[in-house]
Amino acid sequence: MHGQMFVEVLHPDRRRHPWPIVLIHGSGLTGTCWMTTPDGRPGWANRLLDDGWCVAVVDQPTRGRSALHPSLHGPLRVMSPEKVEFLFTASSKHLGWPGAENHTQWPGAGHRGDPQFDAFYASMVPYIPDAESEWLMRAAGAALLDRIGPAVLLTHSQAGAFGWLIADARPDLTQGIVAVEPVGPPRDAVDLRGGTAVSHAPARPFGVTIAPLEYSPPVSEKSPLEFEGFATDWAILGWRQATPARQLPNLKKIPTLVISAEASYHRMYDHLTVGFLRQAGVEVDHILLEDRDIYGNGHMMMLEKNSDQIVDVISGWLERQCSSIKR
After folding, report:
1. 157 is catalytic
2. What is the average pLDDT value for the chain, to the nearest integer?
3. pLDDT at position 195
4. Which domains does the chain have, with CATH numbers?
5. Which three-class secondary structure string do you get for 176-198?
6. How far apart are CA 107 and CA 103, in angstroms?
7. Which of these is catalytic: 157, 264, 307, 315?
8. Does residue 281 come out as left (phi exceeding 0), alpha (psi in the -120 to 50 range) or beta?
9. Residue 20's closest CA among 132, 153, 135, 141?
10. Is the pTM for the entire model greater than 0.70?
11. Which pLDDT score is estimated for 198?
């Protein structure tokens, strides 16, 4: 068997909300990223439990406690310590993008040998390429919702694509999507090299995913999505659909939130992802953390010093979207 997914379901002492929250981690991580922070504080899973939410913490297929079969899944990728420092823990020292100098919330020094960095890097694992991950997680996520019933999907980074795919497969069982800096931008993949954003196109033929999404009118090999480029304020090219834009009917009715941090490299393009979804008919709220007086965060905001403030914003948004219940 392969493609199976380990899920740990945690129940609060007093449940206040009707829907569980499914926490889906990103590249190189496992579900442990939701459980505790590198400096030993309770993670978002525990904070959501305190707020009365039931949470389901997954290890995506081939990752962590979800079995990997190398003969089936092929070679693995490993994120180097240098890349982790650059993107996640010591961005203010590398200055790889505008705003990186504002990254102040990582606990500790952010480099190898620092206890908090080493604790974080010890939690990272090898991973398979995004394309196969999307197919596996779409199937496993749909099977999970079939089993537990309606739920909210909370995704981070690479898992942003999983949220769109699972909701597209099970729109009636998806009560909301919270996408914390989802993989992007639309169409292209972006690498940061020497302070320059380098695009590799086309990486996401369905706009925000590699695997198929249900569009109206349908997308096919003979009738693919058509894109048009436009200039942005950052060093990357933006992409949107050529008009008339096809719609994403299964995602239209699902409350959706995208959250972006002040000092993350995602600030160059999260707004492009939001714009692409809105053009396809999806109603998306976009919260910039500095607009909530939350400053200094990078891409791994759920592990940073002010992570409690951020999850409070998420829980508050969900409170407004989902009616409370008393148990």
Report:
1. yes
2. 94
3. 54
4. 6-74+127-321 (3.40.50.1820)
5. EEEEECCCCCCCCEEEEECCEEE
6. 11
7. 157
8. left
9. 153
10. yes
11. 67
